[in-house]
Amino acid sequence: MKSKQTLLNVALGCLLAVGISGCAVAKTHHGHKTHAQEHAQEGAVQYGDESPWAGNYKAVTDDGRTVAEIHVDTTGETYIDGNQVKPSHSGSDYLKFKQETITYTLRKSGASWKDSDAGTSGRILFD
């Protein structure tokens, strides 16, 4: 166990070297998670000025019927048929979210949906 003085020196060094917000990054080397890592696990998505996924989408069946209308606003808030949902996973090239048994995945290379209960799937089109 480190002494209080050692811990104070580490904390002070962290503040002086990288600033208050960078302190969380320094702690990651000791097994602690940064705030960004914690929020990512909770499904919270944070973007810069505008979400790369901002826009309106339609989830459609193979024969063109609309399954859901999807809206992602400029802050990354996601709505399915007007109801807000939280993304379950996200990365630089995809955004995944779920409503009941349907999982929706937006990708730069193409978007799709899958209903795990009904065993159906289809495309998501940019509207």
From TrEMBL:
Keywords: Signal
Domain of life according to the entry: Bacteria
Signal peptide (from-to): 1-26
Protein name stated in the entry: Lipoprotein
Protein species of origin: Aeromonas veronii
